[in-house]
Amino acid sequence: MLKLKYLFLGLTFLLIGCKSAQVSKKITKQLNSSFFNNQFTGVLIYNPKSNDTLFSFNADKYFTPASNTKIFTLYTGLQYLPEKIPAFKYTIKKDTLTVLGTGDPSFLHSYFKDSTALKMFKNYKNVTLIINNIKDEKYGPGWAWEDYDTYFSPERSSFPMYGNILTVDFEKDSLINPKILKNNVKFKKSNFNRAYCSNHFFYQPNNKKLKEIPMVMDSLLVTKLWNDLLPNKVTIKSNSIKKMEHTAYSIPSDSLYKRMMLESDNFLAEQILILTSSTLSDTLNSTTIRKEILKTQLKDLKQQPRWVDGSGLSRYNLFTPTSFVQVLTKLHSEIPKDRLFNFFPVGGKLGTLKNWYEGNPTPYIYAKSGTVGNNYSLSGYLITKSGKVLIFSFMNNHFTTKTNDVRKQMQTVFEFIRDNY
C-alpha cells in the first residue's frame, strides 16, 4: 500500500513537472518571436501553493511600472490604515473646532460624496482649518508638466475637496461643480482645459463629454469653497504645533482601495500614501511612508525599487517583476481571497481590464495594469482551469507597436497557462 502511495506521488510530481515544462516552452517560444525583438520584456510566474517558479525571464531587471505601482500603494494602505479612513484630526476648545488635514480624498468627491467634515463643522461657531501640514509638492517628481490640466493629474493636498477637480457635465445642461467657480469657466478654443497656475477653466463649445479639470488647491480657493459651504465660519491658518486630540473617520478604507485599483485613479493613489503618512505624524509626507515600509514590512524584497509616487505617473519609478510577485504573494497570504480579488480589475468584466483577458466562461485574471507611452505591464493573479492560483508579473517597456498588439501577445500566453497548467 505504501509503495502505491509513493508511486502515485511520483506520478503526480512527474505530471506537474511535464506541465511546467510545457508551459515554459510555450512562453519561451512566444518571447523569442520577432514581435518581442525591439522591446524590453520581463516575466515571472509563481505558484504560491507549491512554492515553485513556473517561468522566469528578466524577472530581476528593473522596468518602468506605470500604474502597477498602485499595487505597492494598496499594500501600504492595507498595512497602515484602519477599517475607516481618517478624515481629519481635530481638537475642541469651547465653541472653536481646530482641524488638521490628513489627506482624505473622499470629502465631496463625485464618487464617494463624503460629507463628514461638513456635518461636523456645522456644529461649531468657529472652525480653524490647517492645510499647510504637507511636505509633498502638488505634483510628484517626474510628472509631465503638460498634464497639469488633465483629469488624471489632480494636485495633491492635505485637505482635498471635490476630488480637487472641477466638473462640467454636458448631459446636465453644462452643470458645473463646485458651483462657486461657474464664472471661472469660459467657452474658449484652447489646447488646454485650464490656465497654467490659475483657476480659469476652458472647454470647447462642441465638446459634449464630461470634463474633469484639476483645480489649483491654494489657500485662496479653499477659503472660497468653504465660504460657499459655510459662510464666514471657516478660517484657514498656518500649521499649529499643538497636538490634535481626536480623529474623525469617513468612508470604509476598502471602498477607497477598490476605486483606486478598478479605475486606476491616480489622485486616490497619491492621497492614500499621504493618508498613511498621517498615521506616523501630523506632518504629511508620502516619502516618509515609502521609506518606512521599505525598511520594515518590505525589507525582504529581493530588489528594492526606486519608488517615487503612489500612482505610477512618474517615469522615475523602477520596479522588477520579482518585486511585484513578492508583494502580491504577501497580499495573497495575508488577506482572504474574496476580499483581495475584490480590489483588482477583472479580465473581461470590471475596471481597466473590462475589454481584455475575458474568461471562458468564468474570469481567470485578477490584475492591475500599468500603461504609459510605449510601456504596458500587468501584474496579479491567474486562475487555471484546474483551480490553481498563480501569481504573475508581465512587464513590457520601450515598444513602438500598438499597446493592443502587446495585450494580444500577453493574452495568448495567459490563455495557454490557464488551459494547460
From TrEMBL:
Key words of the record: Carboxypeptidase, Hydrolase, Protease, Signal
Enzyme Commission number(s) of this protein: 3.4.16.4
InterPro entries given in the database record: Beta-lactam/transpept-like, Peptidase_S13
Signal peptide feature range: 1-21
Top EC category: hydrolase
One MF annotation (Gene Ontology) recorded for this entry: serine-type D-Ala-D-Ala carboxypeptidase activity
Protease in keyword set: yes
Family designation: Belongs to the peptidase S13 family.
Protein name as it appears in the record: D-alanyl-D-alanine carboxypeptidase
